Amino acid sequence: MKTYLDKASRYYHDVLNEMRKVSWPSRDEVKDLTLVVLTVSGALAVFTFVVDWAITSFISQLL
Questions:
Q1: Out of 3, 11, 18, 25, which could bridge 29 as a Cys pair, Cβ 3.0 to 4.6 Å?
Q2: Domain-embedded: residue 50
Q3: What pLDDT, in 10s, does the model give residues 9-63?
Q4: Does residue 62 belong to any structural domain of this protein?
Q5: Which Gene3D superfamilies does this chain map to (predicted)?
């Protein structure tokens, strides 16, 4: 019967083996993808602000 320590050790060993198989992005890829995320997030924030402002203005004109 395996002990808790044996199971934990096996799990840790399996995790390390799987992490060696991971295809990690290069530094340049990380920079490029970070720029994409920041750009899309900023554009979405601006779009949300404009739509919110337009709806607020429209409703205030109705009232």
A1: 25
A2: yes
A3: 999 999 999 999 999 999 999 999 999 999 999 999 999 999 999 999 999 999 8
A4: yes
A5: Preprotein translocase secy subunit
Number of domains in the chain: 1
Radius of gyration of the chain (CA): 25
Residue 33 in contact with residue 25, Cβ under 8 Å?
Answer: yes
Enclosing H/E stretch for 32: helix 27-62
d(CA 46, CA 52): 10
pTM of model > 0.90 = no
Look at residue 18 and tell me if it is in a domain. no
Domain that holds residue 42: 25-63
Say what the pLDDT of residue 1 is: 58
Contact 11, 19 (CB under 8 A): no
